[in-house]
Amino acid sequence: MPELSYPQSGTASGKGRNIGLIIFLAVILVGAVYCAVHLLDDLQPVRESSALPYLLLGVALLIALGFEFVNGFHDTANAVATVIYTHSLAPNLAVVWSGGWNFLGVLTSSGAVAFGILQLLPVELILQVGSSAGFAMVFALLIAAIIWNLGTWYFGLPSSSSHTLIGSIIGVGLMNQLIHGSNGTSGVDWNQALGVGKSLLFSPLVGFLAAGLLLLILKAVVRIPALYAEPKGKEPPPFWIRSLLILTCTGVSFAHGSNDGQKGMGLIMLILIGTVPTAYALNKAVTPAETQTFLAVAHQTSATLAKYTQGAAPSANPRADVETYVRTHQLTPATLPALQQLTEIIAGQVGASGSMAAVPQGLVDNVRNNMYELARKKWIPC
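Given the sequence above, the corresponding structure tokens read:
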């Protein structure tokens, strides 16, 4: 009697894993080629005297992408835990589904979170981000965040990578202040840190209370026992409950990408500005029409500030006077005239070039730092 042969489930699952690995590596390769092509295109007009900036750029980008990779498998469980626990989706499918919606969230994000995190960094390090201290700052905060994320993941500690990165940034600021002395630009911007800290403190409480309240309302309104029953073995829940769970997983993944995903955007932006500032310090994608709008707003701002300067004499060094205000938080008679002058200087530098992309390479750093000084504070004449 001939022997019956049965399919080998282990072999089939192994083939599935191999196919998944091939697809994953293919996606990574396509992404790497896409990034490399655009980097080469951006760097083509830039002339550096040595290869060191490009080497540092490559190393820093690899570390930043490593942080994002660790952040991915560190935080993925937040979005997929419910659909895997209830057997609504297979683990591999759940992770791929969540990753796709995370990516869409990043693509549609505004970038506000990225800028908010970067504003925690000391002013002097941002203004000198291309210096040795700037490079040390970038590498220190990235490597520290990766080590902590890997440690908490290995030991199964539910630690947020957002808290990790913010802690690394604050640590860099404190150490920079210890090294260079106590002033308003060498350390952490504690006003900004307080705002971020409040959101990190209250968001879990708001989530806890909102989820608890929603559960109580559902139990009072939707009296369907199956909705609140725990999973039975490996049997998936009814279709409509699975749909709800997948929908919530999708929403959490998208929201995670549009918020948490911006951390990597901010870090990569900082790296690009620091290593090759002539290529990335200014947004060269701004169109000439948008540049004209920028110039009109700058001139209007200058005219408004002129009403409050009361005919004060021009400042000999407007940039230094504005930096003094950023450092001391004290408004002096020289502050508003310097602010008006700096606004006009930026408008003149950009206007003479016709667009952001046409600003001469020798002026890029200066224009960018002037803009950063003006954007650092909320200027409200009184």
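The CA atoms of residues 218 and 224 lie 9 Å apart. Try to locate this feature in the token string yourself.
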